[in-house]
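Example record

One chain of 86 residues, shown exactly as stored in the release files.
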Amino acid sequence: MSKLEELADLIGSISDQIDEAMSASGSSAQEAEQIGATAAALGAEGVVEGLAEVKSQLDTLSDTLKSASERAGEIKALTLSIAGNG
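Predicted structure tokens for this chain:
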């Protein structure tokens, strides 16, 4: 295995870890939304507002992680392309 192929494997591993983090972030955002709904039913507006902000930040994190994962995939493909042409 060439060094470029090794690099591509490492990039793939990083991409997988980013995907796992994105999934966890999405799950946490859903949980925050559900807890917010319960808090709203109980009339805890301050909690609802705080959880809405948490959910917003988790959604932003998920979007950022998705972009990073896509970029890592592009870099991996480019690396493998270079390795094949080397």
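Notes: The radius of gyration is 19 Å.
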